[in-house]
Protein: Phytoene dehydrogenase
Amino acid sequence: MSQFGQVSAINTSRQYSGSSVYSSHYAWRKDCTIGQTNGLSFAVSDAMGQKLRVRSPHAFATRSNRAAVPLKVVCIDYPRPELENTVNYLEAASLSSSFRNSPRPNKPLEVVIAGAGLAGLSTAKYLADAGHKPILLEARDVLGGKVAAWKDEDGDWYETGLHIFFGAYPNMQNLFGELGINDRLQWKEHSMIFAMPSKPGEFSRFDFPEILPAPLNGILAILKNNEMLTWPEKVKFAIELLPAIIGGQSYVEAQDGITVKDWMKKQGVPERVTDEVFIAMSKALNFINPDELSMQCILIALNRFLQEKHGSKMAFLDGNPPERLCMPIVDHIQSRGGEVQLNSRIQKIDLNEDGTVKSFILNNGNVIKGDAYVFATPVDILKLLLPEDWKDMPYFKKLEKLVGVPVINVHIWFDRKLKNTYDHLLFSRSPLLSVYADMSVTCKEYYSPNQSMLELVFAPAEEWISCSNEEIIDATMKELAKLFPDEIAADQSKAKILKYHVVKTPRSVYKTVPGTKPCRPLQRSPIDRFYLAGDYTKQKYLASMEGAVLSGKLCAQAIVQDYESLSARGQRKLAEATIA
Structure:
């Protein structure tokens, strides 16, 4: 998730990142093919990116030995699913191609975009594809927004959040293909794996059979799982979901006004279904519990997962997001004449006498002007910088109800390789933790044969965001002791912590509580030449990476559609300046 603006996340761990837009080089080779899987091997000391710099020979003795004894590690991923023929993928591909195929502008628009998260990067990428010149401004010295990451002094990365790429992310999947980086997604087996609180150290799986189409593969996955739900509970819940499956998007949108917990009660779904499944799902989707989350959010996800064969299939990025995802987008933008500037924090939206945008004024005093302006920051930052003259306009006033939710991302490096884990995302079903993964197994760049690095989402985090890192780690260790009873103890009498990083985001994605849907703005604002992008804006996906990318495409589409009026206004301004 994200750290941003003047209310930026309190990143109390160390940060090391350069102030320029950078690139990296990765070296691994295809070594073998096992069945239908892709076998990749690399020398451990040179695995993914720069070699690790060992600063503490005592704490990192194992890692130091690793460099001294060459090892060959084979990383096995599942094949990329066949997504290209799905309706949503083709729809997303059509929108992408509309930019490449649009008439070339006689005079490209200069579009100033605030925020180099996925929404801003997406807006800039598709404007560049349409022949325009984006000028992308990022306040911090790192790309990515809610997918930002930093490298510490030992060469290890720590991220703003634990990011999963679903098959049901058609715009994101198209983006990877357009950039030629499909091979950077590490696809996992088609399963959802939940910890069993009543049986510490054990897991329950929902396995989606590859031979069946949707929704049959999802239905069978649910029916075959007997640890979490009884047959009567499965049947009752399935019956109540039928209207969502049959009614589609219109039914889903109508459920915005009710919480998950209240919807379940209203439908007569046993409370145990919520406890067993939807607490974990709510926290994974929006970092809050079912008594707060809008049922619409759950139904959007279920619709995608049940209606698309590979919708719930998950992939991990093969390394840190700024280099492995954001930099290819920056390279694409720059290759088409666009600009990307880091350390360019906006201090003020300066207005003309008629209330339209005159320029963006930066903290360093620089004034940035363009033919159009886009705010692609989190909604909380936009509200902080909103000009007084705009605040009473209904379009902007509704934003008051959209508030970012706090979340904490925790990384813990242990002195040993933990055994009770999977090469997959895991739902903890803990009261304090949402999802987690052993990144030393799931991600090539973070691979280690001797030590586990757990990345965990600490949520709900509202009561913990002001706590010290030590308090958060102590609470996390108590929960991990339940997930790894044979390997982890709260007092570290078993596995010992080598180091940790805690990344706090006081305002992440907008809190999807009942009644927020009508408050989400369209990308084209009522202010001439001013547009919005961000996962909080109106688009059919969740507050997610997919939603951010789609919002950027819709924003770029609105600007391209407005080209004639934007270009004419620019010419009038030029003529007036010449006469003056």
In short: Residues 213-310 form one domain. Residues 1-74 have pLDDT under 50 and may be disordered. The first strand starts at residue 29 and ends at 34.
